[in-house]
Design brief:
Ribosomal Protein L9, domain 2, four-stranded mixed β-sheet, elongated, about 30% strand, alpha+beta, single chain, Ribosomal Protein L9, domain 1, three-stranded antiparallel β-sheet, 4 helices
């Protein structure tokens, strides 16, 4: 399979840092990196353009990183509660997706889209979960999510979770 070379304009996890020239599959470049302006094709013209703009690109990245850090500091101890219908055994009728989580975070006043919520698979049972939210390629924050059948059950779950954490720290 052929690969194409691109210059990264921002850090991409498991790929590289700003200015790195990396080989990627054509579809990944064409459908994701290039349209989102995360990378440029590694041509002579683009290499020259990158070298001319390198300082500005790095400054913009530092500004975005600082803003993301401020938001991360505010979100540090964020707890979200989602009330869903569930069976007696705790199986949800439906599931909780990254879109649901990002909507709940938005309601609390933070700008987060579904793509920033790192959820490997939809949540299908009630319980307390720790969810990673990627605010910047270099900054992520963990928020607690309580999925319950009612507000009262959610409060009870969070109280139990806090007590369990306290016990494990004191042990």
């Amino acid at each position: 399979m052929e690969h194409i070379k691109v210059i990264l304009l921002q850090r991409v996890s498991k790929l590289g840092y700003i200015g790195d020239i990396v080989n990627v599959k054509p579809g990944y470049a064409r459908n994701y990196l290039l349209p989102k302006k995360i990378a440029l094709r590694a041509t002579k013209e683009n290499l020259k353009y990158f070298e001319d703009q390198k300082e500005q690109i790095q400054k913009n990245n530092e500004i975005a990183k600082a803003e993301a850090q401020k938001v991360a500091d505010k979100m540090g101890q964020l707890t979200i509660t989602l009330v869903r219908q569930a069976s007696e055994k705790g199986q949800l009728y439906g599931s909780v997706t990254s879109r649901d989580i990002s909507a709940a975070i938005k309601e609390l006043g933070y700008k987060v889209n579904a793509g920033q919520v790192d959820l490997s698979a939809p949540i299908k049972t009630v319980g307390v979960y720790e969810i990673s939210v990627n605010l910047h390629p270099e900054i992520s924050v963990t928020v607690k999510l309580s999925v319950a059948k009612s507000e009262e059950e959610a409060k009870q779950q969070m109280t139990t979770e806090a007590e369990d954490t306290e016990k494990s720290e004191n042990a």
